[in-house]
Amino acid sequence: MNEFSMVCRVLGSLWYRHPQNTLLAPLYDLIREDKLAPVWPLEQAALLERIRQNSECDALAAEYNMLFVGEECRVSPFRSAWVGQRDDSEFRQFLTSYHIPAGDGAADHFGALLLAASWLEDNAGERDDEALDTLFADWLLPWCDSFLGKVEAHAETVFWRTMAQLTREAIYAMWEELQENGDELPAD
Question: What region does 118 belong to: left with phi over 0, alpha with psi -120 to 50, or beta?
Answer without folding.
Answer: alpha
